[in-house]
Amino acid sequence: MTTLWIIGSSNVDYVLRTPSIAMPGETIIADSLAKYTGGKGFNQAVTCRQLLTETRFVSAIGADQDAELIRTKLAQGGFDQATIAEINDQPTGAAYIQVNDEGENSIVVHSGANKCLTLESVTGFSDLFNPGDMAVLQAELDPKETARIIDWLKSRDIKVVFNLAPFTAFAREVFAGVHTLVVNETECDALQRNFEIHSFEDLGGTLDIETVILTKGKAGAEILEKGISTEIPTTAITPVDTTGAGDAFVGSYAVARFLGIPSAEAVRIANSFGSYTATIPGAQPDYPESLKSALTKS
User: Fold this and answer.
1) Cα gap 134→4, rounded to integer Å
2) In angstroms, what is the C-alpha Rg of the chain?
3) What would the pLDDT profile of 65-98 be if each residue is shown by its tens digit?
4) Contacts by 226-230 with C-beta closer than 8 Å and gap 24+?
5) Quick one: pLDDT at residue 153?
6) Among 101, 100, 67, CA closest to 84
7) Which run of H or of E encompasses 146?
């Protein structure tokens, strides 16, 4: 049996609702404060687990009260917690998020225990990985360890979906052979500048990536395969909180591809999950059956 692995960060999100995003030197008064479980890795894992029982999550948390929130959410989602490392001398990762009246956000992350997740953390469960598995990673772990993990996964014939968020400058060989790279417009611009790539259409070929997905928020997404790009629009929404919308996109896209759904349809499905998440406070909503059914109908 093949498995969809999510390898990445776990955080607790401290969400401040504010009339506007604070500028440098500015103090503003928040309308409310809420705590949610989050982290790009955990957000993606929660999305995947709701859609696919063959989902496993590898992450690291502290030994503190925030860790208990994450363990409770893991239990509610039916995750096997054997692959969750507990780091006694580090706090659980935390994100401090401002969300304005338009639903846009500004985020500061303290990595905490996430920086202690290493290749050895992953290979400790090497007997559970099989050729044909798929693994999703982000860039909230230590960059050197992320590169080592990706290299190990590729050596095991495991398809890698790499969400380069937040942007981190990795060596060219990290990208070579990646199944899918997912970036937003800011990350894509930084990646092109880093490797002096002058057009989006040259990105996949230059870095030897099978599929590149460029997410564009309310404009939808663009797929690049074999040098040909295709625009996939999305449905207009009124956002409440865009935190986690990109993670819902990545998670649902990975599930669709894991199930053998072609890339264009997978992106259409992912657009729907990302849009829905932006209409709900927090980054880990429960998805309605009407949305989940898109994966069974495809």
Assistant:
1) 5
2) 18
3) 999 999 999 999 999 999 999 999 999 999 999 9
4) 227/201, 227/202, 228/201, 229/200, 229/201, 230/264
5) 98
6) 67
7) helix 143-155
Dist. CA 262–CA 247, nearest whole Å:
20
Helix (H, G, I), strand (E, B) or coil at 282: coil
Structure tokens, 283? 């980054």
Q: Which residues pair with 106 in a beta bridge?
A: 98
- Residue appearing with tokens 């063959």: 54
Instruction: Output the six-digit token pair for 50.
Output: 């709701």
Q: How far apart are alpha carbons 178 and 171 in whole angstroms?
A: 13
Q: Where are the domains of the chain?
A: 4-9+38-92+114-297
Find, among 193, 219, 195, the residue nearest to 206 by Cα: 195
pLDDT of residue 104: 86
Residue 76 CB-half CA count within 13 A: 12
208 Ramachandran zone, left/alpha/beta (phi>0; psi -120 to 50):
left
pLDDT per position as a tens digit, 149-166: 999 999 999 999 999 999
**CA pseudo-torsion sign 23, 111, 177, 223:** negative
Reference 162, options 40, 69, 62, 19; nearest CA is 40
Q: What is the pLDDT of residues 213-249, one digit of tens each?
A: 999 988 999 999 999 999 999 988 888 888 789 999 9
Residues of the chain with pLDDT under 50: none
Distance between CA atoms of residues 164 and 155, nearest Å: 20
CATH code matching the domain that covers 4-9+38-92+114-297, chosen among 1.10.357.140, 3.40.1190.20, 3.30.70.3270, 3.60.130.10: 3.40.1190.20
Measured distance CA(61)–CA(40) in Å, rounded: 14
Quick one: pLDDT at residue 297? 57
Are 252 and 234 in contact, with CB atoms under 8 Å apart? Answer: no
Q: Which of 160, 144, 118, 127 is nearest to 6 (CA)?
A: 160
